[in-house]
Design brief:
This protein is an alpha/beta fold. The chain has one domain: Rossmann fold, CATH 3.40.50.300. The strands form two sheets. It has a five-stranded parallel sheet with strand order 2-3-1-4-5, with helices on both faces. β6 and β7 form a beta hairpin. α3 packs parallel to α5 and α4 crosses α7. The radius of gyration is 17 Å and the shape is globular. The protein binds ligand Z5A.
Length: 218
């Protein structure tokens, strides 16, 4: 493959099918000779995985301030970008991310109601010039996503939020997707096969830096 390394992000509410999509995209890329470095957020380095555990747990019924949650997300992201994402892209590896910055804007911005004025300075510090080449936002009715998540077992601290929290989060996701470039909305309410077909179509038509990957090489 001669294309420059690309940064592809999968986003969506819980139960939207991100893990399922990650596996599909990975095999789509491998068929084209590209083995991506896969990440998840929060997480992906030893310290970031510890922060992930902390942010997902309920501890002694302590309320977690929205700002604390925001800072933990960006602390984990800083570690991941510094130690994994940037080195991978610099070395010419494609990066495929299960959640990234759009999650913070949707959950802590939309869901928790934190302002752009509060979030944007953190984004500037942590992201610098890093930008996804393509974001696939898997849009799902929160009630359906939560039902899928519940069927897997116990819910973590954020998953225990009320439906209205996820409706605000979804609204923010949709607003960002409608107003910013390089974001494709996938209807994740459909069957796994139909979702995969939409993802394949999005990947095939994505002009990643002017270079369309298209069909697999023979
Ligand atoms: N969070 C945040 O607040 N701010 C941030 O900046 C970041 C994160 C980065 C991370 O959770 C939590 O952190 C998350 C947001 C917050 N919290 N919440 N709530 P996570 O990433 O570990 O988990 P998740 O987002 O909740 O992912 P998930 O529940 O594992 O969902 P998923 O990966 O999108 O879905 P899946 O595992 O692919 O599928 C779920 C099930 O549905 C599974 O049984 C599938 O077989 C099934 N499935 C998948 N697709 C379909 C379709 N199309 N039809 C039917 N069934 C399907």
């Amino acid at each position: 493959m001669t294309q420059a390394a690309k940064f592809i992000v999968v986003e969506g509410l819980e139960g939207a099918g991100k893990s399922t999509a990650m596996a599909h995209i990975t095999s789509w890329l491998i068929q084209r000779g590209i083995t991506p470095v896969c990440t998840r957020e929060p997480g992906g380095t030893p310290l970031a995985e510890t922060l992930r555990d902390l942010v997902k747990q309920v501890r002694d019924n302590e309320q977690v301030a929205p700002e604390t949650e925001l800072l933990l997300m960006y602390a984990a992201r800083m570690q991941l970008i510094t130690n994994v994402i940037k080195p991978a892209l610099t070395a010419g590896h494609w990066v495929l991310a299960d959640r990234h910055d759009m999650s913070s804007r949707a959950y802590q911005g939309g869901g928790r109601g934190l302002s752009d004025a509060l979030i944007n300075p953190l984004r500037a510090m942590v992201l610098g010039t890093l930008q996804a080449d393509l974001t696939l936002y898997l849009d799902i009715d929160p009630a359906i996503g939560l039902e899928r998540a519940r069927s897997r077992g116990a819910l973590d601290r954020i998953e225990q939020e009320q439906l209205a929290f996820f409706q605000r989060t979804r609204a923010k996701y949709l607003h960002i997707a409608a107003t910013e470039a390089n974001i494709v909305v996938i209807d994740a309410n459909q069957s796994i096969l139909q979702v995969q077909q939409q993802i394949t179509a999005a990947l095939e038509s994505a002009a990643l830096d002017g270079c369309t990957l298209g069909k697999a090489q023979a």
